[in-house]
């Protein structure tokens, strides 16, 4: 009996006893909710109040369930510990001995801490960390999938990241885009024209020029569902096109037609359902490891010089090669790429962007020499350039759906158009259009790009993006259960900006969005936890806010981390974040948001967040790519070009330390080559007389490659009249001038005063703001109220600071018979380059001007004259030098700017011999030579409005002579205000109130440079020195 009782006791002990949880009243826990609200409120701006919605006790465990707003705060070890301490301290006495669990949004708050932050304060950098639980799950779920080679490998690149994003495939997209609104029978933007931009273009100004290159420089393959090339021309070269450009050469293995369909381009426009990737054929050949190779060659006939993206296409199968060798011959030489054709077949695959010239032997070539015999090498069309939109739309015959937000659950409503409408295309550049149209041009089925069955382009656009991720990744280790293109996409990122205004100039700030559950599952198809989307969102949002606060705005608002069922965050089968960076409708946000330097910093923060997320998930160290170098100079020494520069430390990232450098070279008007790897911070480069050489430098480390330096140039004449030093004093990039009245009634962007300076170019500027009254409300996207802007520039790519002006000025000096060298202003200010060694110094000031970002918390930057530069100039002139200086604000920045210094004003009058008369000295940009003792003549014209060729000088300076022997040599034609001053004494100066590089014709630059050089070279009796 005793044994039986023991046996029964053992059985009862082993059988789990499930006690039902007992619900208890919540009122007694309201003080805890209020205290948590007060505790978490400073860490982020979260809409909604933390409330207690349920309380349960189960045995000796008390579970408190709080409302969703609690889950939207960022959680770390410390604040979770504090939350439990606060709750325990305020528990009613009878619960003090209970084990406590705190929930919000169906999860323990402990589960919201990103694994990256669960460790010590030491970041994951140089040491290898054991695999995280999440990483182990990924490995286990994907064991049956063989490792894939990367889609595209840049074999000519001298940067080989080891602790970056190598072998990662990232889906990135900018929000919205131009679309066809069926009920209005027109193409339109998805958002309003406001503050000189529209969200459909604005987010591109981060993604295309900054974020994508950073990710690629870190080693990632980046794929986009919208056109990435801003080149307006497009060339399609295809085996099916009879007009030529495609050719083959068969070696040991012959080219044959593929059994499957391929690309053809028989139409100028395409309507819904038409797929160009099913209208033609493709070619294929067996690969070889030795012997006579077979090649396919695509040779475009370029009509215009420019930079063009190159896309290739092919068919994929299990027998395809994973090492298809492509060569691109361009103006800088040849670049080599390896493409894994086992994935990505039947769409456009981006290789890179290259400089091409008309009337040159430039081409794309594919060989079957892969290093492995018997695989299939496939060749289909090559696309070069972005081009114009070619998808034509009209209302659906069965009725058009009304637009719905992605989170809406309202029933679908339709309207019909009672007339026969012909399909029309947008007439806009393809890069401005939404994803729906690119995806059709890129070969995807209408079930993907039009899930609403041709009845609503607006909804199609945002709904197709997540579906595109899933089709692209289908059949890979990331999405093993779905058919697709087998590209192992590791994550997706949607870049948006939000709406919302504040009248008191406070910041709306940064919101992160993810989706925890999809189809009632919290796992992705490969077994990975969907909570990883939150972890990634938290990391990226944290990095953005921290970096903005450190560099620009200490009170930048961090908003919540939302778990919402939005299509773009819910649909992808990989970790996904939807970012709402700031409010494009709020002036306080956009005073930062239109600054290119701000865009660079934000993009770098996103890249760093992605990098750190994957480093922790993979259990590997990370290294952030360096910042661009500075103090760059290019001088001549004993027949060689001596290049010197210094690496830059990143105060926001300790791992971003340069280890090596790459020097890129351009000869004449060609393009830059593939570079030369350099261990130190200098290089002696061989040059030939009579040719202009230009150089740019990048810094590299294990994390990847930095953005390039400014471009400097040198030239050694066969028989030189002298040697010129060209100093690039123009390093400004900035937003347009802005203002906000203290009474909060008026504000906006005053590009009539200063358009600002884009980085290289601007693809987001649509036109000037015309509505400055804050009281005017939004009524419709065609009547957006405060901030409303014109649309006259929205299809144009506006030129900015090219950082390439020594070559422009130098080319004119070379024609005048001079050798020249160049240096950054920092190299002169630091004393690395001594101006006294040169007969002539030309200081390019461009649109250099004092500037503060946003509300002006951080120090003023981009002064025309610094103390160090003035010291160098005065030392040079005292030694009898000849100095040319030109720029829009060479006087205004001294007399009428943020910081006006009498010492600087005195220096300009005393040394440079000019003084300020006025800004906005000319509207037309026409200049004429006038009588003076110094023989300057001719008529000139410069750009005063934004354009595609040169940055504009909308507010040139009126400057007048200061002192004896200083004379006006040029006047503005529209008002006779003095535009240029020359001085002759123990030294000579020429000062121009407009930038020479903005002159409309090269012949005008040549003419004025020659006159300046002749003036400097002639002695008092008129003979050449």
How does the SSE layout of this entry go?
Blueprint: H1 2-14, E1 22-23, H2 30-40, E2 52-58, E3 61-66, H3 68-71, H4 77-89, E4 99-104, E5 107-108, H5 115-118, H6 133-141, E6 152-154, E7 169-174, E8 179-181, E9 186-188, H7 199-202, H8 204-217, E10 221-223, E11 235-237, E12 246-249, E13 256-262, E14 280-286, E15 295-298, E16 306-312, E17 324-330, E18 333-339, E19 349-356, E20 363-367, E21 376-379, E22 382-384, E23 400-401, E24 414-415, H9 435-441, H10 446-449, H11 457-473, E25 491-498, E26 510-514, H12 531-551, E27 558-563, H13 567-570, E28 576-583, H14 587-593, H15 596-618, E29 630-637, E30 640-646, E31 660-667, E32 676-678, E33 682-686, E34 692-701, E35 704-705, E36 712-715, E37 723-728, E38 738-740, E39 747-749, E40 761-762, E41 798-799, H16 805-815, E42 819-824, H17 825-829, E43 840-846, H18 867-878, E44 882-887, H19 892-895, H20 902-912, E45 914-918, E46 926-929, E47 939-941, E48 958-961, E49 966-972, E50 978-984, E51 988-992, H21 1002-1017
Parallel strand pairs: 3-4, 7-10, 7-25, 25-28, 26-27, 37-42, 37-43, 43-44, 44-51
Antiparallel strand pairs: 1-2, 2-3, 4-5, 6-18, 8-9, 11-22, 12-15, 13-14, 14-21, 15-20, 16-19, 16-22, 17-18, 17-20, 23-24, 26-28, 29-30, 29-42, 30-33, 31-32, 31-34, 34-35, 34-36, 38-39, 40-41, 45-48, 46-47, 46-49, 49-50, 50-51
């Amino acid at each position: 009996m005793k044994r039986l009782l023991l046996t029964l006791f053992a059985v009862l002990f082993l059988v789990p006893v499930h006690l039902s949880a007992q619900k208890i009243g919540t009122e007694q826990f309201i003080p805890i909710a209020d205290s948590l609200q007060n505790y978490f409120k400073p860490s982020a701006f979260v809409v909604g109040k933390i409330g207690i919605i349920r309380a349960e006790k189960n045995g000796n465990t008390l579970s408190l369930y709080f409302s969703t707003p609690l889950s939207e705060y960022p959680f770390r070890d410390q604040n979770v510990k504090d939350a439990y301490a606060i709750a325990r301290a305020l528990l009613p006495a009878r619960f003090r001995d209970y084990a406590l669990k705190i929930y919000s949004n169906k999860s323990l708050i402990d589960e919201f801490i990103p694994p990256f932050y669960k460790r010590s304060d030491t970041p994951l950098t140089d040491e290898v960390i054991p695999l995280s639980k999440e990483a182990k799950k990924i490995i286990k779920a994907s064991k049956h999938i063989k490792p894939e080679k990367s889609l595209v490998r840049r074999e000519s690149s001298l940067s080989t990241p080891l602790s970056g994003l190598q072998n990662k495939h990232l889906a990135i997209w900018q929000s919205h885009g131009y679309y066809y609104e069926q009920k209005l029978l027109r193409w339109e933007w998805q958002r309003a024209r406001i503050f000189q931009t529209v969200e459909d273009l604005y987010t591109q100004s981060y993604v295309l020029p900054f974020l994508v290159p950073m990710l690629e420089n870190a080693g990632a393959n980046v794929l986009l569902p919208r056109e990435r090339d801003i080149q307006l021309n497009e060339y399609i070269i295809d085996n099916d096109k009879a007009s030529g450009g495609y050719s083959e050469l068969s070696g040991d293995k012959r080219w044959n037609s593929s059994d499957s369909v391929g690309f053809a381009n028989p139409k100028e426009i395409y309507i819904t359902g038409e797929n160009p990737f099913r209208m033609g054929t493709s070619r294929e050949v067996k690969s070889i490891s030795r012997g006579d190779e077979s090649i396919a060659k695509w040779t475009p006939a370029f009509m215009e010089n420019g930079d063009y993206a190159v896309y290739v296409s092919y068919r994929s199968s299990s027998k395809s090669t994973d090492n298809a060798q492509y060569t691109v011959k361009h103006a800088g030489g040849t670049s080599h790429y390896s493409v894994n054709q086992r994935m990505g077949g039947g769409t456009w695959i981006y290789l890179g962007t290259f400089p091409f010239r008309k009337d040159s032997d430039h081409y794309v070539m594919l060989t079957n020499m892969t290093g492995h015999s018997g695989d299939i090498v496939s060749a289909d069309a090559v696309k070069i350039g972005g081009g114009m939109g070619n998808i034509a739309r009209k209302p659906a015959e069965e009725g058009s759906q009304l637009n719905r937000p992605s989170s809406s659950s309202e029933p679908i409503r339709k309207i019909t158009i009672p007339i026969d409408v012909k399909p029309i295309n947008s007439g806009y550049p393809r890069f401005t259009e939404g994803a729906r149209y690119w995806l059709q041009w890129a070969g995807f089925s209408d079930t993907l790009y039009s899930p609403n069955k041709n009845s609503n382009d607006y909804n199609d656009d945002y709904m197709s993006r997540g579906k595109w991720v899933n089709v692209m990744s289908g059949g890979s280790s990331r999405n093993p259960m779905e058919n697709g293109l087998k590209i192992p996409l590791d994550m997706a990122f949607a870049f948006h900006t939000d709406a919302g205004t504040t009248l008191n100039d406070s910041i709306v700030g940064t919101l992160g969005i993810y989706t925890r559950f999809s189809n009632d599952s919290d796992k992705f198809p490969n077994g990975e936890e969907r909570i990883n989307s939150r972890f990634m969102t938290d990391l990226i949002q944290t990095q953005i806010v921290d970096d903005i606060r450190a560099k620009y705005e200490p009170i930048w608002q961090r908003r919540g981390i939302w778990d919402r069922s939005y299509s773009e965050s819910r649909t992808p089968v990989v970790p996904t974040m939807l970012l709402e960076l700031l409010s494009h409708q709020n002036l306080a946000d956009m005073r930062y948001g239109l600054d290119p330097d701000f865009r660079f910093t934000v993009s770098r923060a996103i890249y760093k967040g992605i990098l750190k997320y994957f480093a922790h998930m993979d259990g590997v160290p990370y290294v952030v790519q360096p910042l661009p170098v500075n103090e760059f100079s290019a001088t001549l020494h004993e027949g060689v070009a001596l290049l010197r520069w210094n690496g830059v430390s990143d105060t926001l990232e300790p791992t971003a330390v340069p280890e090596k450098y790459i020097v890129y070279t351009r000869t004449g008007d060609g393009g830059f080559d593939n570079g030369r790897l350099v261990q130190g911070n200098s290089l002696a480069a061989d040059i030939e007389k009579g040719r202009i050489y230009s150089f740019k430098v990048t810094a590299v480390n294990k994390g990847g490659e930095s953005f390039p330096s400014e471009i400097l140039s040198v030239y050694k004449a066969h028989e030189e009249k002298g040697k010129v030093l060209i100093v690039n004093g123009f390093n400004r990039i900035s937003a347009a001038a802005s203002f906000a009245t203290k009474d909060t009634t008026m504000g906006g962007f005053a590009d009539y005063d200063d358009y600002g300076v884009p980085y290289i170019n601007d693809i987001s500027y649509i036109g000037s703001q015309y509505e400055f009254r804050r009281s005017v409300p939004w009524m419709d996207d065609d009547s957006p109220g405060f901030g409303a802007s014109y649309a006259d520039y929205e299809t144009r790519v506006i030129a900015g600071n090219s950082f390439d002006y020594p070559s422009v000025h130098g080319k004119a000096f070379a024609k005048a018979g001079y050798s020249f060298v160049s240096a950054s202003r920092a190299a002169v200010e630091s004393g690395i380059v001594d101006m006294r060694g040169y007969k002539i110094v030309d200081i390019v000031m461009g649109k250099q001007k004092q500037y503060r970002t946003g509300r002006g918390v951080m120090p003023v930057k981009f002064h025309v004259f610094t103390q160090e530069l003035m010291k160098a100039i005065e030392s040079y002139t005292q030694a009898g030098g000849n100095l040319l200086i030109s720029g829009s604000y060479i006087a205004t920045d001294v007399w009428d700017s943020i910081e006006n210094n009498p010492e600087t004003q005195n220096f300009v009058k005393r040394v440079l011999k000019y003084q300020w008369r006025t800004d906005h000295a000319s509207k037309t940009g026409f200049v004429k030579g006038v009588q003076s003792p110094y023989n300057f003549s001719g008529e000139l014209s410069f750009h005063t409005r934004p354009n595609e060729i040169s940055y504009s000088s909308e507010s040139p300076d009126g400057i007048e002579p200061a002192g004896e022997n200083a004379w006006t040599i040029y006047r503005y034609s529209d008002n006779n205000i003095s535009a240029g001053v020359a001085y002759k004494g123990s030294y000579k100066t020429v000062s121009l109130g407009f930038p020479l590089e903005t002159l409309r014709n090269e012949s005008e630059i040549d003419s004025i440079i020659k006159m300046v050089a002749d003036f400097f070279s002639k002695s008092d009796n008129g003979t050449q020195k």
